């Protein structure tokens, strides 16, 4: 039972991290669309910290 619980927790953690990466990408895209005067490099640095 303990092993099953660990597998489920690990699966949930990977899901959460994937969702966070996806949300970060959307955030960067939104900022890009709103403010095109700012360089892409600084946006990526802010988005992937």
Please write out the topology.
Blueprint: H1 2-34, H2 40-47
> Portion of residues in helices?
over 70%
Oligomer: single chain
SSE order: HH
How many distinct beta strands? 0
> How would you classify the helix and strand content by structural class?
mainly alpha
Number of helices: 2
Spatial extent as radius of gyration: 16 Å
Enumerate the spans where pLDDT stays under 50 for 5 or more consecutive residues.
Answer: none
What portion of the residues fall into strands of 2 or more residues? Answer: under 5%
How many strands, which pairing sense, and closed or not: the largest β-sheet?
A: none
| N-to-C span | 36 Å
Look at the structure and give the mean pLDDT.
Answer: 77
Count of discrete structural domains:
1
Overall geometry comes to rod-shaped
Describe the fold and architecture.
With 49 residues, the protein is an all-alpha fold. It has one domain. Helices cover 84% and strands 0% of the residues. The protein contains 2 helices and no strands. Helix 1 (2-34) runs antiparallel to helix 2. It is rod-shaped, with a radius of gyration of 16 Å. The model has no long low-confidence stretch (mean pLDDT 77).
List keywords for this structure.
single chain; 49 residues; mainly alpha; 2 helices; 84% helix; 0% strand
